[in-house]
């Protein structure tokens, strides 16, 4: 059974604008910011619907290795653009 959450379409749209301004690369699904923009209303609706109904689950994160100054490497997780939007909604609510 899922729970209802108070997430508005306006919050999702504001989160989208913040993610778009920040830029960034695609996650494991390969979907870019430009891809989201091509079907923006539908994409934002899906995120809002899943978040407000309590059925949102984050997709896997793409992992890339970043070289360190000392010659080693560290792993960096790159979430999907849609997940970055969802994270931004949560961040805004917490702040």
Could you explain how this protein is built, in words?
The chain contains four helices and two strands; from the N terminus they run αααββα. With 95 residues, the chain is α+β, with helices and mostly antiparallel strands. Helix 1 packs across helix 3, helix 1 crosses helix 4 and helix 3 (40-53) crosses helix 4 (81-94).
Strand line-up in the sheet with most strands = 1-2
Provide the β-strand percentage band. Answer: 5-15%
Class by helix and strand content? Answer: alpha+beta
Succession of helices and strands: HHHEEH
**What percentage of residues falls in helices of 4 or more residues?**
40-55%
> Count of DSSP helices?
4
**Which stretches are poorly predicted, pLDDT < 50 over at least 5 residues?**
none
The counted number of beta strands is: 2
What oligomeric arrangement do these chains adopt? single chain
Rg over alpha carbons: 15 Å
Query: pLDDT average, as an integer?
Result: 93
Outline, from the CA principal axes?
elongated
Described by strand count, sense and barrel closure, the largest sheet is:
2 strands, antiparallel
Distance between the termini: 28 Å
Please supply descriptive tags for the structure shown above.
95 residues; alpha+beta; two-stranded antiparallel ribbon; elongated
Topology summary:
Blueprint: H1 9-22, H2 33-38, H3 40-53, E1 62-67, E2 73-78, H4 81-94
Antiparallel strand pairs: 1-2
Helix pairs in contact: 1-3, 1-4, 3-4
Question: In summary, what is this structure?
Answer:
The protein is an alpha+beta fold and 95 residues long.
